[in-house]
Amino acid sequence: MRLHICAIGRIRKGPERALIDDYRLRFDRTGRALSLGPCLEHEVDDRKATSSGDQGRMLERALPAGAYVVALDERGEMLDSRQFARFVATQRDSGASDLAFVIGGADGLSPDIRNAAHQLLSFGPMVWPHMLARVMLCEQIYRASTILAGGPYHRD
Predict the structure, then answer these.
(1) Model pTM?
(2) Based on the structure, what is the number of domains in the chain?
(3) Which end of the chain is more exposed for a tag (fewer CB within 10 A), N or C?
(4) What's the angle, vertex CA 82, arms to CA 90 and CA 2, rounded to 5?
(5) Strand 39-44 relative to strand 119-122: parallel, antiparallel, unpaired?
(6) Predicted confidence (pLDDT) per residue in 54-93, tens digit
(7) CATH number for the domain including 96?
């Protein structure tokens, strides 16, 4: 199952980009044996879409057809790392070929995207900058693969 991160904004060179690339590479290596991966990134240029509605339409075009869509939203469900790993495995085992995570811009996600998502996921009640949310998502995706593989990365 391929994983997709569809996000508003481009992350240029810097510490956030380095972390995202590192976690995605680690996931691609670990996930391969688990029928997971690759983890693809689809960045929507926020300069071309300034309103929430415009951003929503651009994000919809970035989503793979037929993907199970998870929108990151502060009103979503909070999962611990093991629950998140089980969620990823359940999607894989149910036959999904694509699992897409959507991250909005500074104004959040458009109601259309949020309502069309199969599930809402929250990193807690705090609001996180979209760059950090993407880093945290990539780390949790990698962590999920290590949990499913029985590796030592995740400690209880």
Answers:
(1) 0.94
(2) 1
(3) C
(4) 45
(5) unpaired
(6) 888 889 999 999 999 999 999 999 999 999 999 999 999 9
(7) 3.40.1280.10
Is 145 part of a structural domain of the chain? yes
156 inside domain: no
Tell me how far apart the alpha carbons of residues 2 and 13 are, in angstroms, rounded to a whole number. Answer: 25
Per residue in 28-37, pLDDT tens? 999 999 999 9
154 within domain boundaries: no
Range of the domain at 22: 2-149
Which residues have a Cβ under 8 Å from the Cβ of 30 and sit 6 or more positions away? 142, 145, 146, 149, 151
Strand order in the sheet with 98-103: 39-44, 2-8, 98-103, 68-78, 119-122
Can you tell me whether residue 37 is helix, strand or coil? coil
What does the pLDDT look like over 5-59, one tens digit per residue? 999 989 999 999 999 999 999 999 999 999 999 999 999 887 777 777 888 888 9
